[in-house]
Amino acid sequence: MKVTLRQILNAVPAFQKLIKTDLPAKMRFRARNFVKQIQEKSHDFQTENQTLVEKYGVLNEKGIKEVMPEQYEAFGKEIEELLNEEIELKEEDLPDDIWDSVVMSLSDEEAVKPFKKVK
Question: The dihedral of CA 101, 102, 107, 111: what is its sign?
Answer without folding.
Answer: negative
